Amino acid sequence: MKINHLGIATKGIDEALKFWSDALGLENVHTEIVEDQKVKVAMLPIGESRVELLEPTSPDSPISKFLEKRGGGIHHIAVEVDDIEASLANLRSQGMRLIDESPRIGAEGCLVAFVHPAASGGVLLELVQTIK
Description:
Elements: E1 2-9, H1 13-23, E2 30-34, E3 39-46, E4 49-56, H2 62-70, E5 73-80, H3 84-93, E6 104-105, E7 111-115, E8 125-129
Parallel strand pairs: 1-4, 5-8
Antiparallel strand pairs: 1-5, 2-3, 3-4, 6-7, 7-8
């Protein structure tokens, strides 16, 4: 298991890139809109992980709600798993609270599922299984 990415909520990716790309020199290698989650994402590799900038595309986006409550900043930590279904079953068997009972398609076509912060000490955790 490894950290796939750190999700950072921002009101605007272009503005956020002034820091992450212009000041730090990270390269934006992928940008897309994930319709299901009502979010625009930009992926910036750093070491073997990535920073994922998240910009809402709708006022009812989960990222819009996060920004209203907390402002910009770290939204979630995503860990890469080999078998997302098995990982969810394991968490469920231990009584962990899940946001997603089954995986859905996320950025870059990966399978993703979120674990509720109540299960992980206040951190929103995303499980990611890359499709090869």
